Amino acid sequence: MEAQSQVQQSKSIESQLVITSPLDLLFNPRSVAIIGATPRENSVGGVITKNLLTKFKGKVYLVNPKYDEVNGVKYYKSILDVQDEVDSAVIVVPAPTVPKVVDECIRKGVKVAIIISGGLSEVGEEGAKLENELRRIVQNRIRVLGPNCIGVYNAFNGLDTFFLPEDRMGRPKPGPVALISNSGAVAGAILDWAARRNIGVGLAVNYGNKLDINEAELLEYFARDSRVRVIVMYMEGLKYPGEGRKLLDVMREVVSIKPIVVYKAGRTKAASGAVRSHTAALAGNYEIYKPMLRQAGVIEADNLTDAFDMAKALATQPLPRGNRVLIITDSGGMGIQSVDALDMRGLQVPELSESLQEILRKQLPPLAVTRNPIDLTGSATDAMYKFVLDTVLPTSYVDMALIIALMQIPGLTINLSNYIVEARRFNKPIVVVSFGGNEYVAKFENHLEENGIPVYHAPHRAAKALWALYEYAKIKGVVRGW
Amino acid sequence: MEAQSQVQQSKSIESQLVITSPLDLLFNPRSVAIIGATPRENSVGGVITKNLLTKFKGKVYLVNPKYDEVNGVKYYKSILDVQDEVDSAVIVVPAPTVPKVVDECIRKGVKVAIIISGGLSEVGEEGAKLENELRRIVQNRIRVLGPNCIGVYNAFNGLDTFFLPEDRMGRPKPGPVALISNSGAVAGAILDWAARRNIGVGLAVNYGNKLDINEAELLEYFARDSRVRVIVMYMEGLKYPGEGRKLLDVMREVVSIKPIVVYKAGRTKAASGAVRSHTAALAGNYEIYKPMLRQAGVIEADNLTDAFDMAKALATQPLPRGNRVLIITDSGGMGIQSVDALDMRGLQVPELSESLQEILRKQLPPLAVTRNPIDLTGSATDAMYKFVLDTVLPTSYVDMALIIALMQIPGLTINLSNYIVEARRFNKPIVVVSFGGNEYVAKFENHLEENGIPVYHAPHRAAKALWALYEYAKIKGVVRGW
To answer: Does the residue B3 lie in any domain?
Structure first.
């Protein structure tokens, strides 16, 4: 009992959020019961039990008739035995028991159930029957995420039902990206990847068989959560008739508030069978989807990394007022690659006025190229970058900056990242291309990203990120002439 | 003198290679003189001096009239003072002195000069005059790489004129990839990147102003060097009339021996100005280039990482006899993404025969999908992968394998990499998709790559690599029906 109260004490706070909808309670419950909690470390229930006991900033109640107390933490026989109010229940019991425990949750007045348990409609007829029984019980009396899902990850309050142990799946730091994933395994791999790359994914959710809560509602919730600055969606297909229309309507609304980046897998006819066997969803005809997504103002990604490349920029950069890009580089070759990549995306690399070039030429070494790309060559120094940034970025000739810094060049130091971060004051988007593997490179990149400047390991990726900013700027109507 | 002989002793061997052309001496000289050698650590000459003294497995002579002896290593006033035969000279003197020292090299009987020095035709009229003077002196009496280049990196014998210090540019391990780069800075960044990613780039070269040795000759040399299994070219443009035709002819010949992967930057009209200011080359009309490269049998990359993604597979995998891909996955979502990516590249994911699926179903858990993609789901174990690989890969239904292993799933261990490596015995190409950031992921990936199985962090990158193998298989005529 002592350990229990300690646990509860150490995480009570947080509940400053005003609770306005059941989905608020999905992500920000004040109290959570784990039904199927267990001390067995590497089981699904065990990982969730450990996650919530050690990290969740709210009250946790463990429910499992097999235990009375483990390591001083009390176990309840049933959720009905808990005296206090319980906002949310995480359900990790065998499929046949799910209807019964959900019924108990309803009787207890629990508002949201996250049903992790699999073995329902996804396994065939027997499971489908169980899921139908569950549906009959639920009927608007409780909100349900899942079943057959990996649930919710909230880096802000430690609510984490992702049942992969920490040594297998890193947890990303709190940050402005929210993820809605059609696939639990893909969501887990993304979080692990984001954690290592220091990308702040504050909220993530997978909805499994989608008995109740769906993509549209999750989008609506994230649109209202001010901690979220960009929403990434991984989609394979839709399940129910009419869902697509509703989803597109919601997307259109949400996009007026914050950007949505969608990666739709299952684009090809060849993949439609695989989509069906994966989540019983219909991949749909991508040729029809594509223009509709575009019309809804969604930014489409071509793969998972592409989605996060764009999300990083959308989450951190101001929107450009036009499509003209200033390129500063210490490598002519990387400058050329960047012009190609920007041009292919419809962005411009305008030549600078003669008078502006004259100002640059006076300060830069004779070999430097001042047209744009501004090539500082292998003789580049931090100070040259600073001079060019401060001289050109605030002018009306350019709307955003793509800065290439090959840190192999000995004239550059980590201090360059400070100059780049300082250039945020011009309120124009800035992205950086860095390429290499030495420790200067890593330090440089980390410092930039920690200070709101996204870094890319290839010019085409940086160009795509600037394109996304420009696309969203057009949608929001901030571009001159749009 | 003692330190000098010690240095020489520690690196004499290597010269087992039969010297058949001056370009052999460019990459495999028995002895090298550094003209402009210096003990000043971070200068261009200093880095090269240190590189060669500490790593080169051959004789090194230091030439600089300013010094007699530093740390027990003798300096010569002029190369003419060296008594022994000198195969190659690395020249790092101010531009105006270059013609004179090259003349001395010729008189000394040196076969190849790597002229690192810049300040020649690339800086304007004055420099162009110097370069013309140099051209008159050279006239077939000595072979010249450069001027204005970063020179040669040979991981096999330690010949390394890349003048970026080790803490700024990692050096890749010896390996089957050779790099020909139009840009010195890009070459340096690639090596640094490859070193960190453990990609074996055994040989790399940048030819700078291309006074003499050009791409075509370097290709011919790499075609003959049996340590090279794939050649990566980074190109921006060509300089001299008629060069393109010659280069394409050589490419066609080389491709019959080993694959060439080309990334051509400066594709867009927008970039042509930047190409001109970078290396005084003409970007050329890419719309004309593209089909010609294709006709020559070259495999085209869309960016630098793409080039190395494909090179990794071409350097390690056997060629497929058809375009049918077996997909094994522990994530339905990743399977779907892979089908999309393969289908977009014209590769097939054939459904397996009912009898083969029956065999699989008997051994795999009921939730596994056996059609192809074979989805082992989150319950996957190493043994299931091994069973599917051993059962399906040797059959005549498939020509290659794309294996997806999300190592977030606790049922998988590092041992899975052993099973995958063992499947090389079926003599069909295998590539692996891994996604995430935890240490299991890193160990798994390293073990695979060290044992000749290329790993990719996204399905579309793995699909592109398989496509490259299939393309090259068609060129080599090993595909059934081609």
So the answer is: no
Cβ contacts (< 8 Å) between B196 and chain A: which residues?
Answer: 436-438
Contact B266, B237 (CB under 8 A): yes
Mutation target for A interface from B40, B337, B445: give the one with most A CBs within 10 A.
Answer: B337
Phi and psi torsions of B310, nearest 5°: -75, -40
Q: Would you tell me the crossing angle of helices B125-138 and B98-108 to the nearest 10 degrees? A: 10
Query: What average pLDDT does the structure give for chain B?
Result: 93
- DSSP letter assigned to residue B212: S
C-alpha B482/C-alpha B479 separation (Å) is 5
**Nearest residue in A to B148, CA atom:** A378
* Residue B449 in this model has a pLDDT that exceeds 90: yes
**What residues make up the domain containing B410?**
318-476
In a domain, A9, yes or no: no
DSSP line for B322-364: SSBEEEEES-HHHHHHHHHHHHHTT-B-PPPPHHHHHHHHHHS
Q: Are A376 and A330 in contact (CB under 8 A)?
A: yes
A324/A212 same-domain check: no
Residue A281 and residue A148 share a domain: yes
What average pLDDT does range A435-444 have in this prediction? 92
- Inter-chain contact B274–A339, Cβ cutoff 8 Å? yes
Total structural domains within chain A: 2
Average pLDDT on B433-448 reads 94
B328 and B266 together in one domain: no
Q: Are residues B216 and B97 in the same domain?
A: yes
Query: In CATH, what number is assigned to the domain containing residue B454?
Result: 3.40.50.261
Asked if the bond preceding B373 is cis, omega within 30° of 0, the reply is yes
For residue A139, what are the contacts with CB-CB under 8 A and spacing of at least 6?
A: none
* pTM over 0.90, yes/no: yes
Which pLDDT band, with edges at 50, 70 and 90, does B10 fall under?
Answer: very low
Among B255, B289, B311, which residue terminates a domain?
Answer: B311
Percent of chain A with pLDDT over 70: 96
Q: What is the dihedral of CA B310, B314, B320, B322, to 10 degrees?
A: 40
Q: Decide: residue A280, CB within 10 A, 0-12 exposed, 13-18 middle, 19+ buried.
A: middle
Same domain, B297 and B407: no
Does A123 contact B366 at a Cβ distance shorter than 8 Å?
A: yes
B117/B278: higher pLDDT = B117
Please tell me if residue A137 touches chain B, with a CB cutoff of 8 Å. no
The pLDDT tens digits of the residues spanning B42-97 come to 899 999 999 999 999 999 999 999 999 999 999 999 999 999 999 999 999 999 99
Asked if the Cβ–Cβ distance from B302 to A460 is below 8 Å, we say yes
* Whether residues B210 and B350 fall in one domain: no
Do B168 and B272 lie in one domain? The reply is: yes
Those of residues 43-102 in B touching chain A at CB distance below 8 A are none
Q: Is pLDDT at B14 greater than 60 in this prediction? A: no
User: A304: which chain B residues are within 8 Å (Cβ-Cβ)?
Assistant: 337, 435, 458
Do B307 and B323 lie in one domain? The reply is no
Residues in chain B: 482
pLDDT tens track for A192-204: 999 999 999 999 9
For residue A189, list chain B residues with Cβ-Cβ distance below 8 A: 331, 334, 406, 408, 435-436
Domain-embedded: residue A351: yes
CA triplet A459, A465, A470: central angle to 5 degrees? 125
For residue B110, give the DSSP letter. -
Q: Closest Cα of chain A to B10: distance in Å?
A: 28
Distance CA A57, CA A76 (A): 20
- The count of CB pairs under 8 A between chains A and B is 251
Question: Which A-chain residues 192-231 have CB contacts (< 8 A) with chain B?
Answer: 192-197
